[in-house]
Design a protein that fits this description.
This protein is of the alpha/beta class. It contains ten helices and seven strands. A seven-stranded mixed sheet has the order 3-2-1-4-5-7-6, sandwiched between helices. Helix 8 links the parallel strand 4 and strand 5. Helix 1 runs parallel beside helix 5, helix 2 runs antiparallel to helix 4 and helix 8 crosses helix 10. The chain is globular, with a radius of gyration of 16 Å. The structure holds ligand 610 and magnesium ion.
Length: 215
């Protein structure tokens, strides 16, 4: 049977990356996407210039990622977390989740990551009771763009954000998340900043929006 793109991406990781070395896994996926097949990973330009630096400066103890896909940004984030920090990542497509689990395991970061196979709308309200989460220090939004606003409001309602919590949203230019941007940039409860960049593996314009919850 025909393989899927995530399966071919995983094969490239097994072939080119060193087990236990997260940076080599990130490099193998970026090479695959530059040389073989485009895939919707945050990529190395946005990843190194924006995602990595926001993670490092936030130094988060508890992180939520919405939209694991193949686990590329999961591995980037997990490799920068301080000891005992935890990353919960939500992915509702079982095939993508299966690939992501193997990418995360190959990178050697599985003990820092809890991949939940499920839908953000269903699982965000369960974070406290199921995983003992109080609040998230950092949330990386990279799932369906029409869910960014819905899930942000849901996190507010569930008391999952505290003063200083950071929301980092990918693709606010391409494909775009206009309702999210409109809300977050006009809300007195957030201080937002746009980081201009390019769509992964292309020259198209894109960027990330970093928003600090003011409580
Ligand atoms: O569409 C994009 N990303 C959507 C990502 C979607 C991934 O998150 C999961 N998901 C979705 N809602 C979910 C809710 N709950 C759990 N998983 C969920 C989907 O099963 C998929 O694995 C995208 C598109 C482009 N692009 O150039 O077209 C570029 C990018 O960087 C992108 O991130
Ligand atoms: Mg994205």
């Amino acid at each position: 049977t025909q393989s899927t793109r995530p399966q071919r991406l995983l094969a490239a990781v097994h072939k080119k990356a060193t087990r236990g070395n997260p940076r080599s896994v990130v490099k193998a996926i970026d090479e695959f996407c530059n040389q073989n097949e485009w895939a919707m990973n945050v990529g190395n330009e946005k990843g190194s210039e924006i995602l990595d630096s926001v993670v490092s400066e936030t130094n988060p103890g508890c992180v939520l990622e919405l939209g694991t896909y193949c686990g590329y940004s999961t591995v980037r984030i997990a490799s920068l977390l301080p000891p005992h920090a935890q990353l919960i990542t939500l992915e509702f497509n079982p095939d993508n989740a299966a690939v992501a689990r193997q990418v995360i395991a190959w990178a050697g970061v599985a003990e820092k990551v809890r991949l939940v196979e499920g839908e953000s709308g269903e699982w965000i309200p369960k974070m406290k009771e199921q995983f003992g989460v109080k609040t998230f220090d950092l949330v990386f939004l990279d799932h369906w763009k029409n869910r960014y606003l819905l899930d942000t409001k849901l996190m507010e309602e569930c008391g999952l954000l505290k003063k200083g919590s950071v929301l980092l949203a990918d693709n606010v230019v391409c494909p775009g998340a206009p309702d999210y941007l409109e809300y977050i940039r006009n809300s007195p409860q957030y201080k937002s900043q746009f980081f201009k960049s390019h769509l992964e593996y292309t020259k198209a314009e894109d960027g990330l929006e970093k928003s600090v919850f003011l409580g």
